[in-house]
Design brief:
heterodimer; A: 249 residues; alpha/beta; 6-stranded mixed sheet; 9 helices; 10 strands; B: 472 residues; 3 domains; 22 helices; flat
C-alpha cells in the first residue's frame, strides 16, 4: 500500500539482550536482537517455546527492562522513561493481548474495557460510550454486562482486544492470542486483528505458533535461541511454505 | 499517522479507586471474609482482656461505695462505742463545718501525709520515720535531728515523692502540736457525749438502741454532739432492725429440729446445712413461707417474722455475699490495665498476634493477586493507584473486622464476668469506657491492617509487570 508511510519506524531494538539468573544458573533469553518495525505493519513473530519470543515481546512493550541494549518506541528510548511516563506509554501507545486473556475477574466486560480509559483520564460517560463502541467492534455489544467467568475463551479474548484498543494505541502486542482457542474461534480473533490493522492502521506485532497467521501478516520473523534467525516478507515465504516453512513446526 | 508524545499519566480519582476496590472485595467475598475473621479474632482477643479489666475496675469502684452504704449501721455502732484515735479524728475535723479554717486545712493535709506514709514499703518507712507509726510520726519529727534525718533520707529516694512540697510538710510538722491538741479536745468532747449516750442505753445493746434511731434514741445521739441527720438516722434504724432480724433467723436454724427440717426440705445431711444454704433457700417465697410455718410449729423466735420479710432479708444477705466476694476478686493488682502485670503481658501478646495475623493475611491477598497487579500495570495503572487500592481494601477489612472483633471481645468478656459477679456487672457496667475501648480497638484494627498491607503492596506495585506475572 502506501510505501512511504510504512517506512516510518515505530519500534526499533538495538542489540537487545536479556539474562535471567535462576538458581545461580545464567539463562540467556535474548542474545542480541536488532530489529525495526514500521508503522501500520502486521508482523508475526514465530519460534518454538523457550526461544525468547515472549521475552522479546516484553522488552519492546516496555513491560520488562533489558539487561543491555536499547528499545526505541517512536524514537523515544524506553530506558529513559520514568515510572509515570512508562505508565502513560502502556496506557495509550501500546495495547496488550495475552494468551490467558488476563481480564480483571471482578469487572464486567464493559468495565474491563473502560478501565484503561479511566487510567488515561477519559471522563466516565465518554469512556462508557467508547467502550460500547469497541465491544460492538468485536461483536460483543450484547454481552457488556457479563463477567469474564460467564464468557467463553473466544469471547474473553475479544473483550481483551477491545480493551487493548481502549485508548487508540499505535501498536498492538499480541502474545499467542489464539493458543488457548479452538480453530474456528482462533480464526475469528485473527480476522478481528487483521481488520484493526487494515481499517485503523494499527501496527500489530503478534507472537504465534499459528500458521494461519502467515496468510494475513505482512512480514514474518523467526526467533531461535534468543536470536533473530530470519525475517521475510509474506510473498517471499509463501514459496517456501511447502518446503522450509512447513518443516519448521 | 500518530506520533508518540510522552506526557504524565493522570491520577485516578479517589472515588473511582474506592469503587474498583469495593468491586474487588465483593468479588472475592470469601477471601475477604477470611481476612475479616483473622482481624476480628485478633482484635477480639485484645478487647476481651481490656473489657474484663475495665468492668472489674468499675465493679471494684462501686463495690466499695455500696459496702460502706450497707454497713452504715455497723459504722455507727463503732462510732458510738469509742471516741476514736487522733488519726481517725483528722478526717472528721477536716470535714466538720465549724472550727478554724487553718486547723481544718492542716487536718486534711495530715491525713494525706498519713495515707502517704502507709503507701511506703517497710524499708523506706523505717529509713524516714524510724519506728514511729501513725501520728507518732509527726510527734517524732518535732525533734530537729529526726527532721533533718527525714530530709536526708527523702533526698536519697528518687522514686518517692511527698504529696506536697518539703517546705509545706515542714510547716505542717511545726503546726502539728496545735492540731493534736485540738484533736484531743475533740476526742474528750466525744467521750463525754458517748458517756451520755451509754447512760441512755437502759441495758439495750447499741444495735438494739439504733433500731430506734428514727425516734428518741436519734435525739440522744444528736444531743451528745454527733452529726446525725434524719436521712442517715432512717437508714441506720432500718439496717439495725435488719441486723437484728438476721440474727434471729440465723440463730433459729441452730436449733437441732430446725436444722433437721431444712436438711429434709433440701435433701441434704443436717451437717451440711449452713447459714449460707439457709439464706439461699429463703430467697424463694414458697420456701420462706414453709420456714415460717415450721417456726410456728416449733415455737421458734423467727415465727414472728413474715415470709416476705425473710425473702427481703435473704436478698440483702445475697447481695452482701456477692459484694464481699466481688471486693475480694477485684483487688487491683497493678499494671497498666489494672488487672496485674501478667495481664499487661497478655495484652502485649495479643497485639503481637494481631499484627502477625493481619500482616500474614494481607501478604497472602497481595501475592495471590500478582497477575491482576501486572495486568493493571499493563493498562497504565500508576504504582500509587495499586498501593492505594490494597491499603484501602486492608483498611476497609480492618474496620469491619476490628469493629466485629471489638464487639465480640467485649460481649465475651462481660459474659464471662457475669458468672462470678452476676447482677453487679450490669449494675456498674462502665458503658462509656467500654464504648471508647471498642472505638479505639476498631481504629487499631484499621491502622494495623493498613500498615500491614503497605509493605507487600509497595513491593507488588514496584515490580515490572512481567516480573509480577512470572512470580505467579
Amino acid at each position: 500500500m502506501q510505501e512511504d508511510t510504512r517506512r516510518r519506524v515505530i519500534i526499533r531494538a538495538i542489540d537487545l539482550k536479556k539474562h535471567y539468573v535462576i538458581r545461580n544458573v545464567l539463562t540467556e533469553a535474548l542474545r542480541g536482537v536488532d530489529v525495526e518495525i514500521y508503522t501500520g505493519e502486521f508482523i508475526s513473530v514465530m519460534g518454538p517455546s523457550g526461544s525468547g519470543k515472549s521475552t522479546f515481546f516484553n522488552m519492546i512493550g516496555g513491560l520488562d527492562s533489558p539487561t543491555s541494549g536499547r528499545v526505541f518506541i517512536d524514537e523515544v528510548d524506553v530506558a529513559q522513561l520514568t515510572a509515570i511516563e512508562l505508565a502513560f506509554l502502556r496506557c495509550r501507545k501500546i495495547g496488550y493481548i495475552f494468551q490467558e486473556y488476563n481480564l480483571i475477574q471482578y469487572m464486567t466486560a464493559l468495565e474491563n474495557v473502560t478501565t484503561p480509559m479511566a487510567f488515561g483520564g477519559v471522563p466516565p460517560d465518554a469512556a462508557r460510550r467508547r467502550g460500547v463502541e469497541l465491544l460492538a467492534l468485536v461483536g460483543l455489544e450484547d454481552r457488556w454486562s457479563h463477567r469474564p467467568i460467564e464468557m467463553s475463551g473466544g469471547q474473553q479474548q475479544r473483550v481483551a482486544i477491545a480493551r487493548s484498543m481502549a485508548n487508540q494505541p499505535s501498536v498492538l502486542l499480541c502474545d499467542e492470542p489464539t493458543a488457548n482457542l479452538d480453530l474456528r474461534t482462533g480464526r475469528e480473533i485473527l480476522e478481528i486483528l487483521r481488520r484493526l490493522n487494515e481499517e485503523r492502521g494499527v501496527t500489530i506485532i503478534c507472537a504465534t505458533h499459528d500458521h494461519r497467521m502467515m496468510d494475513i501478516c505482512d512480514r514474518l520473523m523467526w526467533i531461535r535461541d534468543g536470536r533473530i534467525e530470519r525475517i521475510a516478507r509474506r510473498d517471499e515465504v509463501h514459496v517456501e511454505v511447502g518446503s522450509i516453512g512447513g518443516e519448521r513446526e | 499517522m500518530k506520533t508518540i508524545e510522552i506526557r504524565e499519566q493522570p491520577v485516578l480519582s479517589f472515588r473511582r479507586t474506592v469503587q474498583i476496590t469495593a468491586n474487588g472485595v465483593r468479588y472475592r467475598l470469601f477471601r475477604s471474609l477470611v481476612t475479616v475473621v483473622v482481624v476480628a479474632v485478633a482484635v477480639a482477643f485484645l478487647m476481651n482482656i481490656l473489657s474484663e479489666s475495665l468492668v472489674r475496675r468499675a465493679i471494684a469502684r462501686s463495690t466499695v461505695g455500696r459496702i460502706a452504704e450497707i454497713r452504715c449501721a455497723a459504722t455507727w455502732v463503732g462510732r458510738l462505742t469509742s471516741p476514736g484515735t487522733v488519726e481517725e479524728l483528722l478526717p472528721v475535723i477536716a470535714a466538720s463545718s465549724s472550727g478554724d479554717e487553718r486547723l481544718r486545712d492542716a487536718a486534711r493535709r495530715g491525713s494525706q501525709y498519713l495515707g502517704w506514709f502507709q503507701s511506703l514499703d517497710y524499708a523506706r518507712r523505717r529509713a524516714l520515720l524510724h519506728k514511729a507509726t501513725g501520728t507518732e510520726a509527726f510527734d517524732s519529727l518535732q525533734d530537729a535531728a529526726a527532721l533533718s534525718r527525714f530530709r536526708d533520707a527523702l533526698a536519697v529516694m528518687r522514686s518517692v515523692r511527698l504529696p506536697s512540697s518539703l517546705a509545706a510538710f515542714e510547716e505542717f510538722v511545726r503546726a502539728w502540736p496545735g492540731l493534736k491538741a485540738h484533736a484531743l479536745a475533740v476526742r474528750a468532747k466525744r467521750a463525754e457525749g458517748l458517756a451520755a449516750v451509754a447512760a441512755r442505753l437502759q441495758g439495750r445493746s447499741l444495735i438494739e438502741a439504733l433500731a430506734d434511731a428514727n425516734g428518741a434514741f436519734g435525739e440522744v445521739v444528736r444531743s451528745a454532739g454527733f452529726d446525725f441527720p434524719a436521712a442517715t438516722a432512717r437508714r441506720v434504724a432500718e439496717q439495725a432492725r435488719r441486723t437484728l432480724d438476721v440474727r434471729v433467723v440465723e440463730k433459729s436454724v441452730g436449733a437441732p429440729q430446725m436444722r433437721q427440717a431444712v436438711a429434709g426440705y433440701l435433701d441434704l445431711l443436717p451437717n451440711d446445712v449452713s447459714v449460707r444454704t439457709l439464706w439461699r433457700l429463703l430467697r424463694d417465697y414458697k420456701a420462706a413461707s414453709w420456714y415460717v410455718a415450721r417456726q410456728k410449729e416449733t415455737d421458734g423466735d423467727a415465727a414472728r417474722l413474715a415470709a416476705e420479710r425473710l425473702v427481703e432479708l435473704a436478698a440483702v444477705q445475697g447481695e452482701l455475699y456477692s459484694l464481699a466476694r466481688a471486693e475480694r476478686m477485684t483487688v487491683a493488682t497493678g499494671g497498666v490495665t489494672g488487672s496485674g502485670e501478667r495481664m499487661d503481658w497478655l495484652v502485649l501478646a495479643s497485639m503481637l498476634v494481631c499484627v502477625v495475623g493481619i500482616s500474614n493475611s494481607m501478604l497472602m491477598s497481595v501475592t495471590e493477586r500478582f497477575r491482576e497487579i501486572a495486568t493493571l500495570k499493563c493498562l497504565g495503572a500508576l504504582d500509587g493507584f495499586i498501593m492505594l487500592m490494597f491499603v484501602l481494601e486492608a483498611a476497609f477489612l480492618g474496620a469491619v473486622g476490628g469493629l466485629l472483633g471489638a464487639c465480640l471481645g467485649t460481649l465475651l468478656g462481660v459474659a464471662r464476668l457475669l458468672i462470678p459477679f452476676g447482677s453487679l456487672v450490669t449494675a456498674s457496667l462502665p458503658a462509656g469506657e467500654l464504648a471508647a475501648a471498642i472505638a479505639i480497638s476498631s481504629v487499631l484494627g484499621v491502622i494495623l491492617a493498613a500498615l500491614a498491607s503497605v509493605y507487600p503492596s509497595l513491593k507488588a506495585a514496584r515490580l515490572a509487570p512481567m516480573e509480577a506475572m512470572r512470580i505467579q
